[in-house]
Specification:
Blueprint (H helix, E strand, L loop, with lengths): L4 H7 L8 E4 L2 H10 L4 E7 L2 E8 L2 E7 L8 E5 L3 H11 L2 E9 L3 E7 L5 E7 L13
Parallel strand pairs: 1-4, 5-8
Antiparallel strand pairs: 2-3, 3-4, 6-7, 7-8
Length: 138
Amino acid sequence: MTSTPKESMAQNQFSGLSPILNVSSIPTSIDYYVNVLGFQKDWDWGDPPTFASVSRDDVCIFLCQGAQGQPGTWISIFVADVDALFIDYKAKGAKIRQAPTNFSWGMREMNIEDPDGHRLRVGSATNEPSDGVPLCED
């Protein structure tokens, strides 16, 4: 007996996602994600390390030196209070490309850049009107 496409999809439920960011230095990236962005180092692999994992709450990001991923990758992370996080990140010296801004798609987002040019769009849902400015993409 064969399963239907719907049954097959239910049997293969996706349970997680870990973007892989190509980085130029595992130690530099771990330092930025841990000491500036508040992630924790889960593990690193290799001697010297060429692959690592950092996480914060339910968000996990893999870092790969010299192989997987592309420079300038963008990822979105959803948080409860982007304004409080902005204050923390600003105090820690994060490279903030755009302060919290209300967008027409119902999100209040800030835009952070890591040492390798990867962009983190960190935001909270909002019912406030758009600030009328475009997303900072440069």
